[in-house]
Amino acid sequence: MQLVIGVRFKAAGKIYYFDPGNIKLDLFDKVIVETARGIEYGEVVVEPRMVSEEEIITPLKSVIRKATAKDDIKYRENKKKELEALITCEEKVEKHGLAMKLVDVELTFDNSKLIFYFTANGRIDFRELVKDLAAVFKTRIELRQIGVRDEAKMLGGLGPCGLTLCCNTFMGDFHPVSIKMAKEQSLSLNPAKISGLCGRLMCCLNYEQDYYEEISKIMPRVASDVITPEGRATVLDVNKLKQLVRVKLTLEDGAVDIREYALDQIKALDNRSVSQNDNNDPLVDDPEIASLLDD
User: Fold this and answer.
1) What are phi and psi of 69, to 5 degrees?
2) Short-list 239, 172, 165, CA closest to 202
3) Which of 156, 180, 207, 285 lies 20 to 30 Å from 72 when distance is taken between CA atoms?
4) Are 219 and 273 in contact (CB under 8 A)?
């Protein structure tokens, strides 16, 4: 077991473990640490705790010091420099006529490296741009091409729910989402309704997926036969959230009726779940649907 603290370097960023050593640290304290790209200023988001060796990426680096008032001032100054660097880089991009969109810029705490993040439809030859930027800022320059999900995470915005994007608020990492999740949750397969600001499938499709997978194992399949208190019936629809089953049954007088029962009131004659689908899903062949799956 190893004593560690969890540090974030940006809002909703990935959490990295560091060895606190003999430094007493509390939640939300600011710290100065050494990372693979230089000295960085971060915030403690996981209090000191013991973790197993399997959870640690070795070698585990140590906290240099708890941030001082001077460190806080320098951090704020670096943020102003980042904005100036972004404006300068945009001018250089326009000068070189490059088909790229700048998204964000990061300056390491020790000013040893400037990292520019951008999106583009293809590969970009930015060698001349890097030379110009290095001549202006007199430091190491790095340009990183990112995807549309990362762009949304950096820029933020409001999702269809009216709340700030999850990826920009609390999600440290992206999790896989698929069209199958939307189908199992009985959502509209209209791309406009299941895609986020990034144009890809909404991350929140993953939040309730575990529940839907479990309930699908016990819910009867649509079009299958079940036994109800009034006799045999055919399933027309299922409500997985309320655990209700709507069926069509023939009454004793020969009349056909549509009724709804709680799951525990019926007995399924077919143990296959409504969520089962063929592996060859024709929906993936739809160009609009397929575009949501692209990285």
Assistant:
1) -60, -35
2) 165
3) 156
4) yes
Q: pLDDT digit of tens for each residue in the chain (295 aa)?
A: 889 999 999 888 889 999 998 899 999 999 999 998 889 999 999 999 998 888 888 788 999 999 999 999 999 999 999 999 999 999 999 999 999 999 999 999 999 999 999 999 989 999 999 999 999 999 999 999 999 999 999 999 999 889 999 999 988 889 899 999 999 898 888 988 999 999 999 999 999 999 999 999 999 988 999 999 988 999 999 999 999 999 999 888 888 899 999 999 999 886 544 444 444 444 455 556 556 665 5
- DSSP assignment of 130-182 equals HHHHHHHH-SEEEEEE--HHHHHHHH--B-TTSSBPHHHHT-SS-----HHHH
Rounded to whole angstroms, the Cα distance separating 282 from 237 reads: 22
Q: How far apart are CA 116 and CA 97, in angstroms?
A: 17
Whether the CB-CB separation of 109 and 74 falls below 8 Å is answered with: yes
* SS3 of residue 205 by DSSP: helix
Residues 6 or more apart in contact with residue 135 via CB below 8 angstroms:
none
Q: Whole-model pTM? A: 0.76
